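Morning, I've got a small favour to ask if you have a moment. I owe you a coffee for this, so here goes:
>
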Amino acid sequence: MRALYSAATGMLAQELNVEITSNNVANMRTTGFKRQRAEFQDLLYSDLRRVGATTSETGTMVPSGVQIGSGVRTVATPRVLSQGSISPTEKELDVAIRGDGFFRIRLPDGTTAYTRDGSFERDAEGQLVTSDGYILEPGITIPDDTTSITINQFGQVEATIGGQTAPQNLGQIELARFANKGGLQAIGDNMFLETVSSGPEQTDNPGAEGYGNLLQAHLEMSNVNAVTEIADLIAAQRAYEMNARVIKGADEMLSTTANLR
């Protein structure tokens, strides 16, 4: 009976939907996290009576036909890359992006990764690095005797150094954009990698046309909305239950057929 297998695909799809929702909820407080959603497509159809088939010698055709679907499948789990809320931190090396763009991060193997997480630190050599010690590109080194650091909205980094009155320019933070942000590959640690689907990176300074600007001593929070996620979770649970009821109903029908005398 087709109903058994169709309902089974529905249960599997809603199980994955719940897994996506659970990951969103788990990352509600993850800096720069972008929520995902599941997208589904219907599977192949069996034509019991093909649309447009001829039913008489005069050319009369079937107007709608009889088609039976075989279920559903998950085709994508795209990220919703909307702006998260901006939260003050009072830490001068924290930087939030307001608008489009990603920070460029150099991984140990030389690969460039991309992140919206601007919670930077200083390593033993004074370089700006992520919480995992990966270097921000282009590299910016802060002198040991620095008393204060200023990062303006255009990404210019200046430091007030002991014994000097005028601030010293330390470098420029750049942002990267992509033709298809949804095509980036998430690798964990709040980072993404460029793929063929995302297209090559396009870099420029914050505040340039099409690029966001920066806000020092702030961080971009997750764009997960608790109310929306709970509503999605309830909807997925109910859909799962309804598919389970279909399986139960199909089983009872098969049982009735099997018990016929």
User: Anything to note?
Assistant: The chain has a mean pLDDT of 91. The chain is about 20% helix and 30% strand. The helical segments are 2-26, 226-258.
